[in-house]
Amino acid sequence: MVPNKKDVIRLLEKIALYMELKGDHPFKIQAFRKAAKVLEMDDRSLEEIDQLTELPGIGKGIAMLINEFITTGHSSILEKLQEEIPKELVYLLQIPGLGAKTIAKLHQELGIQTLDELKRACVEGRIRKIKGFGEKTERNILQGIEQFNKKTFRIPLAQMLPIAKWVEDRLSDMKGIETFFRAGSLRRLKETLKDLDFVIATNHPKYVREQILQFPNIKDRINAGDSKITCKFSFDFDVSVDFRIVSPDSYPTTLHHFTGSKDHNVRMRQIAKARKEKISEYGVENTETGDFFTFRNEKDFFAHFGLPFIPPELREDGSEIDKVEELPDLVSEGDIKGDLHMHSNWSDGVHTVSEMVEACRRRGYSYVAITDHSQFLKIANGLTKDRIRRQLELVRKLNDQYSDITILAGIELDILPDGSLDLDEDILQELDVVIASIHSAFHQSERQILKRLKTAFENPYVNIIAHPTGRIIGRRKGYSVDIEKLFQLAKETNTALEINANPKRLDLKPEYVKIGKEMGVKFVINTDAHSKESLANMEIGVKFARKAWLNKQMVLNTMDTDQLLHFFKQKKEGKSDSFT
Q1: Confidence of residue 151 (pLDDT cuts 50, 70, 90)
Q2: What is the rounded distance in angstroms from the CA atom of residue 338 to the CA atom of residue 383?
Q3: Which of 222, 247, 272 finishes a domain?
């Protein structure tokens, strides 16, 4: 199977990661990361690029490496790095808050390469003696180890999605498959996953089985039966993948069964039992007559029981079956009329403002907000007042070019550790939309954090609070915040709270959104995209919002352009407004 462009990008990023673990020169590491970004920015496939070296940032060495990978499916440089770097060091990357650069330093200075060695070095106070480290670093590492040990080895969704796509790319290229789809926790969009599940429909099960067992990266073949294959794949971490192989007739009920959840399936079996029927993964049997039913799709399966199609993300505790009348009002991706949080190459994004706008036009949006970082985040090349005004001019010119989309000039405004905002009102009032967020001093008390947030909420120019708890799934819990007080401030000030669609964040959690929904808080679903490709995360964000049974009337970016601008204007004028 010939590697595609995404495979090449992943290879370059992986080499950069391993180089960082090895402690290579930052320039070399950055060269591979830049090459990966350049390829990601280019819309062409590998076949359409005549000379890789024509792309900025890709020299002869990296071009040769890419060609070797395309030709052979292997990379001698990556394989050499994998031989040089102890596997235990890669394993340590799973500890929340511990990055490759820190791990490399610990390995070089103290010879640490296992989890036990790392914990012992913290307990003995040896890490604080390394230049640039300290007691706080030791405490943070110990907290990360404790958090890691509490996990039942569930892997964050963001880390599993590329592997799922890798599997799907290979299944798509296989012969003999009628159709296939992801199942299990991945299909229900859980924020952490234990493994991956796929259901495959085929009339040639043995042929399909043989091809799966020849996939690259297989570390162990745990089960190789006729209808179920379980393989452990080795990437930066080990992942177990289940493949269920069934006939096309059985596929819809098998897909439903292995999507779960367990509680949803139990409830469906109870409904069937009351009708003197029995659900299996192969179909539905009438226990009195012996009649056996199969279905064209899951929609027909649910219709057989007098139910509308229940989307996978809602199939959790069985109570969803009692709320099916609410389904038509739930927010859907088709309701979204714009994305109000994204970054361009003016700060830490990959693409230009024009490229982000064009990508949003292709998605059929009515509006888009460009919200690069403000000046406090120097590491993200945050915008000063002067640069903001220059970007404003660019946005005005672009708006003159388009009649089908409105470009909103915005900023992601930092809420500073001392409680002040990163920019004065004289510049904020010139912008169409202001998103405020916390990126620093996460250690502060709940009281201090709430005080910082209150400053942003009460500012007449702040429209949205982004990623409101600051979490990064599996790596950072976020800051301490009183959720009910957060929602109360949002309601009182007519400020929307973001549901961040980045799979690394998915902030706010559905259980929090449910509380806000009851309190009448307004939400906005944003991607926080740093590239054109990341705009596709809107699908994930919407599904995550649906987990909280959020209806479209409560989501800001289901409004049309005039309604949205009116809503923003109301806050500036100190008025309250509703979704009408």
Answers
A1: low
A2: 23
A3: 247
Residue 145: both structure tokens together: 């180890």
Pairing of strands 177-183, 277-280: unpaired
Residues 555/523, Cβ–Cβ less than 8 Å: yes
**Residue 431: exposed, middle, or buried by beta-carbon count in 10 A (0-12, 13-18, 19+)?**
buried
Looking up residue 220, the CATH number of its domain turns out to be 3.30.460.10
Indicate if the pLDDT at residue 1 is higher than 70.
no
By C-alpha distance, which of 53, 75, 74, 73 is closest to 63?
A: 53
Residues 270 and 381 occupy one common structural domain: no
Please give the residue range of the domain that contains residue 381: 333-572
Pick the closest to residue 8 from 348, 49, 90, 159 (CA basis): 49
What is the 8-class DSSP label of residue 85? S
Same domain, 27 and 105: yes
The predicted model scores a pTM of 0.78
Indicate if the alpha-carbon torsion angle 365, 564, 450, 378 is positive or negative. Answer: positive
Percent of the residues in the chain that have a pLDDT greater than 90, as a whole number:
68
In whole angstroms, give the CA distance from residue 62 to residue 84.
Answer: 20
Half-sphere exposure of 166 (CA within 13 A, CB side): 21
CA 330 distance to own-chain centroid: 21
Return all residues near 281 (Cβ < 8 A) that are at least 6 apart.
244, 246, 250, 253, 254, 257, 258
Domain of residue 271, CATH code: 3.30.210.10
Mark whether 474 and 519 lie in a shared domain: yes
pLDDT (mean) for 129-151? 83
**Looking at the domain assignment, is residue 443 inside a domain?**
yes
The sign of the dihedral angle between the CA atoms of 441, 444, 450, 452 is: negative
Residue 121 contacts residue 112 (beta carbons within 8 Å): yes
104 in a domain, yes or no? yes
Model pLDDT for residues 364-389, shown as the tens digit of each residue: 999 999 999 999 988 788 999 999 99
Q: Can you list the pairs that 513-517 forms with residues at least 24 positions away whose Cβ atoms lie under 8 Å?
A: 513/545, 513/547, 513/548, 513/550, 514/548, 514/549, 515/483, 515/484, 515/487, 516/487, 516/490, 517/548, 517/549, 517/550, 517/554
Q: Is 259 exposed, middle or buried (0-12, 13-18, 19+ CB in 10 A)?
A: buried
Strands 283-286 and 292-293: antiparallel
**Any bridge partners for residue 496, and if so which?**
464
Q: What was the pLDDT predicted at 485?
A: 96
